[in-house]
């Protein structure tokens, strides 16, 4: 069950990168967004798969994966024109997924905050979701959908922690 209105994401195109969960995919689609279509307006990157097992290698893979996804999807807007990416939503690995999970979350938070300042002139927002060990995938999905909606246009540089 969602508190978001039906068809909230109609007319929005979302690029999903990383290990985005089925719950996020289904929620975005159920609310009417086009997934991985032409000229995505929103990038959602989930670092959990790249972090897999943690450690320094996982930390590096998660942060490099985020930047690679941003370069692939968001950088084409570099010469601002209608139809470019306007929102970047990063999802950090859960704290119980291995050593350096907290560092990975902090790195992604720093990336979101930096992008929010550097890319404000292009009207691009960036946020990070940090799910706790007890946060259900459905709650993460609902927050992703909220941030992908027009309401997310007003939030940038924010860290959203879910219990």
Which features does this protein show?
Rossmann fold, 5 helices, 6 strands, 38% helix
Could you characterize what this model shows?
The protein is of the alpha/beta class and 163 residues long. It has one domain (13-158): Rossmann fold, CATH 3.40.50.720. It has helices at residues 22-30, 48-51, 55-73, 101-118, 137-148, and strands spanning 13-18, 34-35, 42-46, 87-91, 125-131, 158-162. It has a six-stranded parallel sheet with strand order 2-1-3-4-5-6, with helices on both faces. Strand 4 (87-91), helix 4 (101-118) and strand 5 (125-131) form a beta-alpha-beta unit. Helix 1 (22-30) packs across helix 5 (137-148) and helix 3 (55-73) runs parallel beside helix 4 (101-118). The chain starts with 12 loop residues before the first strand and ends with a strand.
Short description:
The chain is α/β, with parallel strands linked by helices and 163 residues long.
Q: Mean of residue pLDDT?
A: 91
Q: Give the termini separation.
A: 18 Å
Assembly annotation: single chain
Largest sheet descriptor: 6 strands, parallel
Contiguous uncertain segments of 5+ residues: none
CATH superfamily: NAD(P)-binding Rossmann-like Domain
Number of E-type strands: 6
Sheet/helix structural class = alpha/beta
Shape: globular
Q: Please, how many domains?
A: 1
Taken as a percent bin, the fraction of beta residues is: 15-25%
Q: What is the third-level CATH name, the topology?
A: Rossmann fold
Strand arrangement, major sheet: 2-1-3-4-5-6
Write the layout of secondary structure elements.
Layout: E1 13-18, H1 22-30, E2 34-35, E3 42-46, H2 48-51, H3 55-73, E4 87-91, H4 101-118, E5 125-131, H5 137-148, E6 158-162
Parallel strand pairs: 1-2, 1-3, 3-4, 4-5, 5-6
Helix pairs in contact: 1-5, 3-4
